[in-house]
Design brief:
- By secondary structure, the protein is an alpha+beta fold.
- It has a domain of about 80 residues: Ubiquitin-like (UB roll) (Roll).
- The protein has 2 helices and 6 strands.
- The strands form 2 sheets. It has a 4-stranded mixed sheet, covered by helices on one side. It has a two-stranded antiparallel sheet with strand order 3-4.
- The relative contact order is 0.21.
- Its cofactor is Zn(2+); Mg(2+).
- It is an enzyme of class 3 (hydrolase).
């Protein structure tokens, strides 16, 4: 199958045909990870509810958790106002980050809330 033409026309892609995908945990609102998608990855995600991304380093599609078991079940997908980013609301099973952390944003706090 192919991505709906109306949706495809609204997407703004980089020179490689990619756009940003942000995975946010349903319930907590915590940002888990940022990845890349292309039209095929988005279409597969919308059809299967399994988060599918494009790996720039491997040059291939990958389904989150396909090998690790750390899956993302997608509840909703939203397109931002500029059409260059999608927001996936997911149920995360296991770690979202390749380091084994629940989120990719646990490592370095560059600015923290004032007390």
């Amino acid at each position: 199958m192919a991505l709906d033409p109306e949706l495809a026309s609204r997407l703004k892609r980089d020179a490689d045909g990619l756009f940003v995908a942000v995975a946010q945990e349903r319930g907590t609102g915590q940002v888990l990870m940022v990845a890349w998608m292309d039209d095929i990855a988005l279409d597969r995600t919308l059809r299967t509810r399994k988060a599918t991304y494009w790996s720039r380093s491997r040059g291939a599609h990958w389904v989150k958790g396909e090998t690790s078991g750390h899956t993302q079940f997608v509840h909703s997908v939203r397109l931002d106002c500029d059409g260059d980013t999608v927001l996936l609301e997911v149920d995360q099973t296991g770690a979202a980050c390749h380091t084994g952390a629940h989120t990719c944003f646990d490592a370095d706090a560059l600015l923290t809330p004032e007390a």
